[in-house]
Structures are given as structure tokens and as C-alpha cells.
Protein: 60S ribosome subunit biogenesis protein NIP7 homolog
Amino acid sequence: MRRLSEERTKLVLEKLKKYIGENIKNLIDRPDGMYCFREKKDRVYYVSEKILKLANTINPDNLVSLGICLGKFTKSGKFQLHITALHYLAPYAQHKLWVKSSAEQQFLYGHHVLKSGLGRITENTGQYQGVVVYSMNDVPLGFGVMAKSTLDCKNADPVATICFHQADIGEYLRSEDTLL
Structure:
């Protein structure tokens, strides 16, 4: 496990800021201790410093993963969040979108959210803003990027895409081999 370079740290923080805004500091400086980001084989892990100190006693070749895998760097150098980050994004999300129960299954199969499936949305959500997608029972289902702003959603056709799918909890089944 190695520290992220300054350039890669900036990419990770920009992606997280898209979803949780200024709440990034709450991820790092938590009441239960300090947390940090580490990298291994282009995957970024979110780990407590206590566990990181204990992991330093293990041979790096024998260490498969450590902490929670937030995402990975693609071959083109961009950072992509994994669904494993949802548990840490949901409590701090600034913009939220709730889908109707009739649209939950479609979202969980990896489809975009249509206007007809929109239950409610946080006010003043802008276009291309990162949102956490919830069921009407306030269960986090995944996250995505808004295709239209809140104002544009009100006037959109029922079959218009309003949120682009990024990740959903159905990926635990569909992509279980590649999530680690």
C-alpha cells in the first residue's frame, strides 16, 4: 500500500466532492480516528490509520486489500467510484434523488432513471451534479449524475432520462469478481 500522489489525490477528492461537497473533511477526520487513502494496483482504499499501522507488519506481497475499496483509476488516468463507496457517500450526500418503487428494479439492473420513475429530488440540484439514489423507503440504492437540473425535470417528458446511472447495489451480484 502506498500513498496517493498529489495528482491522484486531487482526482479522488474532486470525484468525492462531486457527490458530498465540503463533507470530505468528515470522511478523513472522524470521531473514531483519522482515516486516509491508500493505493494498490490502481485501486484506492479508505482505511483507518490504526489499521494501516497494523498492516505495515505484513509483507506487501501477501496483502490483497486493506480497508474499503472506494474505486479505481482507469487506464486513461480517470478515477471511477465503485459501489463499495456508497456506504460512505450516502450519509454526507448533498443532493439526493428518490426513485419510485416501480423504477427501483430498473435502476438496480443498471439502467438510467427516467422522469416517470422519479419520486422526489433535492431542490437546486444542477445538471451533471452527482446524486445518491434512494428508494422511497430511504434505502441507498446507488449513485449517478443528473442529466437535467431540478427545474428542467419539472418540464421534461415522462420518458426523458434525468439521471445517468453510475453504480448500484445490484453490482454486488453482477460484478462480484471485479469489485475487490
